[in-house]
Amino acid sequence: MEGYNEKFIAKNPLFVKVSDFADRLFHSLYYFIFVMLVSVLGFALGAEVVTMFILLFVVSLNLAICRDVSPSFLPTVLIALIPMQYANASLDGFLVMGYAAVFMVPAAILRFVFFPFKFVKGKNLLPLIVYSVVLILGGTGSTISASQYFAVYPIYTVLGLGLLQVLMYLFWQSYTPQSSDSVIKYFCYMMSALALVAISMILITYVKYYVSHPDAPLGFVHFLWKNYISDILMLTMPFAFYLSVKTRYKLLFSAFGLVQYIAVILTQSGGGILFASLMMPFLLIFTLIKIEKKQRLILVSVIGTLCVAVIAFIVVKRDFFIGLFNEKIQSGGTGRFALYEHAIEVFKKFPVFGGGYGYTDSFIQENYVEKMDFIMTYFHSTFFQALAATGIVGLFGYAFMAFARLKTFIKKYTFNIFLLIGFLGYAGYSMVDVGTAMPFPFAAMVTFMLVLTEKYNAFRQSAHSSLSVKPEESANPLNENRTN
Q1: Residues 441, 425: Cα–Cα separation, whole Å
Q2: Staple partner for 436: which of 205, 430, 448, 474, CB 3.0–4.6 Å?
Q3: What is residue 327's predicted lDDT score, i.e. its pLDDT?
Q4: Are 261 and 310 in contact (CB under 8 A)?
Q5: How far is residue 37's CA from residue 129's CA, in Å, rounded to a whole number?
Q6: For position 475, what pLDDT does the model report?
Q7: According to the model, what pLDDT value does residue 266 have?
Q8: In the chain, which stretches have pLDDT less than 50?
Q9: Residue 53 to residues 156, 173, 250, 317: CA-CA distances in angstroms?
Q10: How far apart are CA 263 and CA 464, in angstroms?
Q11: What is the distance between the alpha carbons of residues 237 and 195, in angstroms, rounded to a whole number?
């Protein structure tokens, strides 16, 4: 059978039945409910480590038993999402996660035994390899020390954004199914599940604050990981609207897309609110264009009502929002403008390969490492990060990779357009934040989306060339089996 180790299944035919059952389970609603419930409870109870162990065990089962590894995308992202409140703190308490190797390593070995790896040379492989090389070369010829270059976070970032992205790309190319409309829907359901967990985390944070501060006036709650959760929501938001177009739950998913936008507002992330607000008109207009005419009037009424409510809320709270953005401007983008100026200075010193991801000088040490607890030199901008850390070589390497991604995403298919809106929102926000400098979850999410879109483009082109575009396979693909 395709995808299996033929010699193994010839001797163990029962394994195929077990594998098919597990595959159906991983594509069921029960799987989604379990993973979301474990994640939300882990965050609410402060049991992030326990939750991460459970999610890793789920991943290991999927790796060892199922041909299709795409269900692992959901828990993989959640593993990075659940402890997000510790993103700017020491992660010593999470070192115990190393014990997960007890079941993860055997699962990985069994993966390659039961399901032989098949090399697939995707269109984005070369750009990813080039980017990986320029990341490793970053800092060549600068004053960066070996201890700075090989420090935990810089080397994790360099290898995670580069080599690990290449390996994830190859792995997913080999072990995710050939695309179809139901495969795309399943991915959109996973993104909606991620959004639901993210929204729950925000609401739980609000509830915890008011429980511990019963006399506090009702208003916004400040939390340090607001930018990270906003990035997640900008990547997930478009797929709720896609599902509103492609399923019968049009009002439900349209409303859920707007709820995600409201959640971004609740984070108080200035950049998140700005870029989510830029995304929203395009999402709403394209949704109304693609929706069936008989549903359009009802949807316009519902969306219009919700939009009026959101606008009214913003007007009522206008002093807060005006103050928020004025504060950003007066503080130099919360110190970002000073960082950008310093990035240019670093580039002038080391124009070819930059200072390196672990580069730290007295200015950064004093103003950001000691005062703001930076764990490495984040320049809070895709452009300035590439410029300062990897120089002109890295800037061109990143541009090569970005151009290849856009070439993949920019197609006239409905899915691609929704995806592109979210990707551009995330990429735009990353011009003033650290999204593109974080291997997990953001680089991993984009890499998975890249593989998925490549396969979907091939599916649509094949269907078009045969003049037999298939109808939607199912209104609810969660119980469908997958084959490679």
Answers
A1: 16
A2: 430
A3: 65
A4: yes
A5: 37
A6: 40
A7: 92
A8: 331-332, 468-476, 480-484
A9: 21, 26, 36, 41
A10: 39
A11: 7
